[in-house]
Amino acid sequence: MAVSVDPLVVGRVIGDVVDMFVPTVTMSVYYGSKHVSNGCDIKPSMAINPPKLTIDGRSDELYTLVMTDPDAPSPSEPSMREWVHWIVTDIPGGTNPTRGKEILPYMGPHPPVGIHRYILVLFKQKGPLGAVQHPASRANFSTRLFADNLNLGLPVATVYFNSQKEPLSRRR
């Protein structure tokens, strides 16, 4: 039996947040000068502001970005899975989220206990989404259900990072 080495499988992103998919779009994510790669560590103090994110693709293609934490409030008891941190729709290909419509404002990582995974999921839209309903709560969000409701299909790109509470003496 083959063992999967896909970081999205190993990190349980596929399964906990999204279903198996084939990446078809390149999405680059940076917090400051730090490039986000699957499973890397990002301190909450580095992620107070939204990441610099670029999406390849054609300008006539539109994308939706969702950022969630499936480990809220604690990785051992994720009773609020998923906590949604950011939603942006109608992002033109070849650009970044500032060109799209922010449905839910960015909220940086604030893990109370343990190591949390923060997942950025990109979907290709079939056309402009128009008015998208703001989630009733950031808690108990479902990326799968959100994508189903908007007929987005499977993701086209996903990246995740880990973050944990910083000791008070190290915050800068």
Describe the structure.
The protein has about 170 residues and is mainly beta. Helix content is about 10%, strand content about 30%. It has three helices and nine strands. The chain has helices spanning about 5-10, 15, 145-150, and strands at about 25-30, 35, 40, 50-55, 60-70, 85-90, 100-105, 115-125, 155-165. Strands 3-9-8-5-6-7 form a six-stranded mixed beta sheet, with no helix packed on it. A hairpin with a 2-residue loop joins strand 1 and strand 2 (about 35). The protein starts with 6 loop residues before the first helix and ends in an 8-residue tail after the last strand.
Describe what is shown at a glance.
The protein has helices spanning 7-10, 13-16, 143-149, and strands at residues 27-31, 34-35, 40-41, 52-55, 62-69, 83-92, 101-104, 115-124, 157-164.
